[in-house]
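A.,

Following up on our hallway conversation. Structure tokens first:
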């Protein structure tokens, strides 16, 4: 019970620290002349993934690599099934712009690369790991993604619906806070570190007490907890009818998890793919692949029926994955 309370407290500290860091960083960036549009596009997708990044870095430093892997893959699965399913149930999601349409195939590419990297070892009779060289490749892909998006944002596609939605309602407080911006950043970093350390420590204790792997704790308890910012952002966007923003937040966060959070762990210490990990990657890949015909080839609309199916798929995955871990 104490470990569960400690895990919950750690996740709350992570979310609070991430929010303060986002708020302070936004103010500082705006003060130095960075376009609010670019700040909004960056923060909406990537700022909400700060808790996952901190948990993975702390976990890798402590050698809890199973938690690091489970947190990334679990966060992506919860983003694509749980968060997107809830948002679609609230209001069907229709996509008009090209920025989000292009990010969905990129997420599929990133997930495919992660899966191939995980399979590389077993195909050669070696353990499945995400090592430093693979991590560098993933981060280089992220740099390309940022470069291409930056060109579009400042270039000819400024009328993209995602950009217009963020300009009209950025989902972050843009009122100046003066000299307190740096204090918010410092306080946010402090809360993130404290929350990350507490989350990792209690996750290990819970795994030992309940006889499950750290990967399971990362896949579900930690991943869902650290995905709360994405859930809140996407739900708010769905309620406001900002469909591109609702999906863009989920996809952008998942891209950040795949191309920054996991590689950051791999650069610190190679991340072994745990038992059942390749199956987790395949589930994540299937969820992204499902979005391709919906948003790229079809009517670009995710309705309530499909949203409900995504939620059912998520809970079915929870049952099957935990059962498999206990075999």
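Then the amino acids I'd put at each of the 327 positions:
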């Amino acid at each position: 019970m104490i470990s569960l309370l400690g895990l919950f407290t750690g996740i709350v500290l992570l979310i609070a620290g991430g929010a303060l860091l986002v708020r302070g960083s936004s103010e500082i960036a705006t003060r130095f002349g960075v376009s609010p549009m670019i700040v909004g596009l960056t923060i909406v997708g990537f700022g909400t993934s700060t808790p996952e990044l901190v948990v993975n870095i702390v976990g890798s430093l402590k050698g809890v690599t199973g938690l690091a892997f489970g947190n990334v893959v679990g966060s992506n699965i919860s983003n694509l099934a749980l968060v997107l399913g809830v948002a679609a149930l609230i209001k069907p999601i229709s996509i008009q712009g090209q920025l989000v349409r292009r990010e969905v195939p990129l997420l599929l590419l990133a997930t495919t690369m992660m899966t191939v990297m995980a399979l590389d070892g077993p195909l050669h009779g070696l353990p499945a790991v995400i090592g430093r060289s693979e991590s560098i490749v993933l981060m280089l892909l992220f740099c390309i993604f940022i470069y291409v998006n930056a060109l579009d944002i400042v270039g000819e596609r400024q009328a993209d619906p995602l950009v217009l939605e963020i300009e009209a309602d950025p989902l972050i407080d843009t009122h100046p806070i003066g000299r307190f911006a740096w204090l918010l950043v410092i306080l946010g970093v402090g809360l993130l570190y404290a929350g990350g350390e507490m989350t990792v420590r209690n996750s290990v204790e819970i795994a030992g007490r309940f006889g499950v792997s750290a990967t399971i704790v990362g896949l579900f308890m930690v991943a869902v907890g650290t995905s709360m910012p994405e859930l809140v952002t996407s739900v708010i966007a769905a309620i406001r009818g900002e469909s591109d923003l609702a999906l863009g937040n989920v996809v952008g966060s998942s891209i950040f998890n795949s191309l920054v959070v996991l590689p950051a762990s791999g650069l610190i210490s190679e991340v072994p793919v745990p038992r059942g990990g390749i199956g987790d990657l395949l589930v994540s890949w299937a969820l992204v692949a499902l979005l391709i015909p919906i948003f790229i080839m079809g009517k670009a609309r995710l309705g309530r029926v499909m949203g409900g199916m995504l939620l059912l798929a998520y809970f079915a995955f929870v049952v099957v994955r935990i059962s498999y871990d206990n075999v």
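The longest helix spans residues 180-210. Curious whether your intuition agrees with the design.

B.
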